[in-house]
Structure formats: C-alpha cells, structure tokens
Design brief:
Number of strands: 0
Order of helices and strands: HHHHH
Number of helices: 5
Radius of gyration: 14 Å
Strand content: under 5%
Distance between the termini: 37 Å
Shape: globular
Largest sheet: none
Helix content: over 70%
Number of domains: 1
C-alpha cells in the first residue's frame, strides 16, 4: 500500500482514463474494448447512452461526464 498515492487520491480524487478503466468489470470488457475500437475508428458514441448501458447491463456506475471526457480523449488521441 502506497500511503503517498492514497493521500494524493484523497485530496484530488481519481481522475482521467485510469478512473474510468478501473471501473470496467471483466464481464463488461468485451463491450468496452469494442466501444473503444469504434471510437478510435471515428464512430461518435453518445456518452449518456454508454452510461445507461453500463449501468443497466453491467451494474457499473460511472458518471456521464466522466464517460464524456474519456470518449473525447479517445477521439482526440486518434487525430
């Protein structure tokens, strides 16, 4: 256990891709990988729908805004 890392997280919270990726379960991974591949291919995904699908089908709770930021970062990393 890294005390410094825990203290950093306590003061800043979890952020970015690491936070989103850490929430994806083994069961949801095939969906998540396919979603990322599509985004990398230029397909625009609706964050509110991704949020709903993760919650309804995999019981994963990630805020819509976190998903939106994650998808935007994926989109721009391909440019």
């Amino acid at each position: 256990m890294d005390i410094e890392q825990l203290l950093k997280e306590a003061s800043e919270g979890k952020r970015g891709a690491h936070f989103v990726e850490s929430k994806i379960t083994k069961e949801a991974m095939p969906f998540w990988i396919a979603l990322k591949d599509r985004v990398k291919d230029g397909v625009v995904m609706k964050p509110y729908v991704v949020h709903r699908l993760l919650e309804e089908h995999f019981n994963i709770q990630i805020s819509e805004s976190a998903i939106r930021k994650y998808l935007k970062k994926l989109e721009t990393s391909n440019d």
